[in-house]
Amino acid sequence: MDATSTAGPLLSIVVPVFNEEDSIDLFLDAIAGPLKEAHVALGPGGRSEIVFVDDGSFDATASKIIARLRERPGLRLVRLSRNFGKDAALAAGLAHAKGDAVVPMDVDLQDPPEILPAMIAAWQRGAKVVNAVRADRSSDTALKRASARLFYKAFNRLSTYPIAADVGDYRLLDRVAVDVLNRLPERIRFMKGLFSWIGFRQETVAYKRPPRAAGTTKWKFWSLWNFALDGITGSTTLPLRLWTYLGGTIALAALLFALFIVGQTLVLGVDTPGYASLIVVTLVMGALNLVALGLLGEYVGRIAIEVRQRPLYVVEEVLEAPEQPS
Questions:
Q1: pTM
Q2: Percentages (nearest 5) of helix, strand, coil residues in the chain
Q3: In this predicted model, which residue has the larger pLDDT, 134 or 6?
Q4: What's the pLDDT score for residue 173?
Q5: CA dist., res. 135 & res. 190, Å (int)
Q6: Phi/psi at 133 (5° precision)
Q7: Can you tell me the distance from the alpha carbon of 37 to that of 195, in angstroms, rounded to the nearest whole number?
Q8: pLDDT, average across residues 11-38
Q9: Is the pLDDT of residue 3 over 50?
Q10: Among residues 235, 225, 227, 231, which one has the least CA distance to residue 198?
Q11: What is the DSSP letter of 273?
Q12: What gap in Å lies between CA 270 and CA 121, rounded to an integer?
């Protein structure tokens, strides 16, 4: 593509991939038409690039992308040295994207590229962030829809900066927003929370979420659970504050109960202690202490990761096709 000063706006599509060999060709073929429409929406000289981030795949994902480098200008492959996780791979893609507008997108085509022109139109109206909202998630399982609703509700009750429900990583980010995200230093990244934290003027574009085009999801229950923990602990300290309130309430209740026991003893004399009540109180307090310690451990563990200041990801190599006029 032409990189001269006369070139028009550049749209970057960032696609993290991990063991997606069956999806690469489908994705590139499916996005070709919508990208042509996006070039028109961008205006005279509108251009695009696709930045694949291979997050340590051990199948033929990288070779499939390399094979397409020879035939598609504007295609780039960023290979990480191992699997660092989707949010780290997305951060690597944002760091390597050159566009005036950047769109993170899943390779499975559940993020339909057909709405790119509508997202560009919202961006041209002045929005710095254009969120793609899943208006219809009937292609997801009932369990996934229910767990997603529960997570969004819990997160938004706890977090200082709520995230929009049914909005994934699929959104358009202005270069200003991307530059801010690239400056954020944290190693444990919950990108949906960061997208909300940066602020800026935002608009939404609704779409119906289609079924996955190929491959299988890499999100298992345990991965989703850890993802939710990272999101909540990385976005708010309210859980710790709640334990302060809970501890204060229990301490007040214990003081009132102690005063009651002292008064009862002074009036009625010494009573035989109840074994059952003692065991119940001991078990309840022990359980609360263990839960509180576990919560503290979650935060302390993340502090330990941050203070080591290791890089968020390691890039093994960057491959790209020679630039040609679009």
A1: 0.68
A2: 50, 15, 35
A3: 134
A4: 92
A5: 23
A6: -95, 130
A7: 26
A8: 88
A9: no
A10: 235
A11: P
A12: 79
